[in-house]
Amino acid sequence: MQSLLISPHGSRSASSQPHSSSSLYSPSNPSSIRFFLMISITVLFILSLYDLISIYSERYVVFHVFTPEFSERIHVAADSNGNPYWLLPIRGVEGIRLWDGGLNPSCVILQITPSGHINFLDCIVGENMGMRQMIKTKLKPVLARPRYENIFRWRDIGDPAINTRDQSDSDQRAANVIEEELSTSKFQVRFESGVSDWNTRREGLKEMFSRNIDGKPVVQINHRPTEGQSCNWLLMLFSGGYQYPVNAVGQVNRDGPLKNLYSHPGDAISHGIPILLFPHTPAPQPNRGVQKQIRARAAGYAVRDITN
User: What angle, 0 to 180 degrees and rounded to 10, lies between the N-to-C axes of helices 263-277 and 198-210?
Assistant: First the structure.
């Protein structure tokens, strides 16, 4: 190969010396060998990392969440172009409130439309407060919004422990607080105990996300977070926040949910949805162990300070 050289006088001359170039890989070149070893190790590391992520996703993200059927793409209310919109209450249709108690009392508001779709509208979680305080400071301001002014009939369903009397103070129940705070001169609230059997609750969630009406999922979820809340609890719990507990060695305990902030609105939904989906099917009666758990939760739900 010849190259042209420009002399100091401006004339060009051809050089007969070959232009040195090294190939990308040469067995006699130590630098190229090290380069290819580094590339090979990097590729192997990336593949191993990919396999590790796949295993982790399979074990912790898919199989230990309660609602793997949930998809934000199809279950969040959106128009024909896929743009999410604000899901508003339907005038004149009964409103449904699903409840969980404890130190993080929760209320999930939904409607079942005339077409049979379940519209999840709002979710309120009271963090480290009592039932009465949550209703007064969190729930009532939401219900006072103009979008709810034309909802005149309500149905209230929740954890059976809310309706169980505390043996040390039989006059105080969280259910009493719900009825007292939300009843009006035109409508008397009556709290209904939901399903306590875990298998029935779990199947209710699965059935809810499996149903379709006219090619559209039964479940439609509001993409907007409820006023005064730190996040959209509905999207968070359905996306994986409501899950089974997993121990340090990766074993999944399927006897109930992991207790976290998402489990409270998740429990509210799982206690109530079977009642709505299977209205003519009697819920299995809890065994003695479950009854004991319900009584223990009821003691925690009891309201002794009426100002709270």
Answer: 80
**Residue 256, phi-psi category: left (phi > 0), alpha (psi -120 to 50), beta (remainder):** left
Query: Which residue has 């409501």 as its token pair?
Result: 242
Question: What is the spatial distance between Cα 150 and Cα 116, in angstroms, rounded to a whole number?
Answer: 20
Q: Which of 64-78, 111-125, 186-200 has the lowest mean pLDDT?
A: 64-78
**CA count, 13 A, side-chain hemisphere, 14:** 3
3-state secondary structure 106-123: EEEEEEECCCCCEEEEEE
- Take residue 24 and report the two structure tokens written for it: 């990308």
Cα separation, 9 vs 266, in Å, equals 87
Could you identify the residue written with the tokens 């172009």?
81
CB neighbour list of residue 209: distance below 8 Å, 6 or more residues apart: 67, 69, 70, 75, 217, 218, 219
Cα distances from 146 to residues 111, 125, 150, 189, 301, in angstroms, run 16, 21, 8, 21, 31
Compute, in degrees rounded to 10, the torsion defined by CA atoms 179, 306, 267, 149: 40
Q: How far apart are CA 121 and CA 55, in angstroms?
A: 35
Residue with token string 């009821």: 298
- On whether the CB atoms of residues 264 and 106 are closer than 8 A, the answer is yes
- Please state the pTM of the whole predicted model: 0.71
Residue 57 makes CB contacts below 8 A (sequence gap 6+) with: none
Residue 41, CA distances (Å) to 30, 36, 38, 149, 280 in order: 17, 9, 5, 65, 62
Of 150, 124, 151, 149, which Cα lies nearest the Cα of 222? 124
pLDDT of res. 177: 94
Is 150 within 8 Å of 91 (Cβ atoms)? yes
CA separation, residue 278 to residues 216, 243, 273 (Å): 20, 23, 8
Q: pLDDT digit string (tens) for 72-90?
A: 999 999 998 889 999 999 9
> How high is the mean pLDDT of the chain?
80
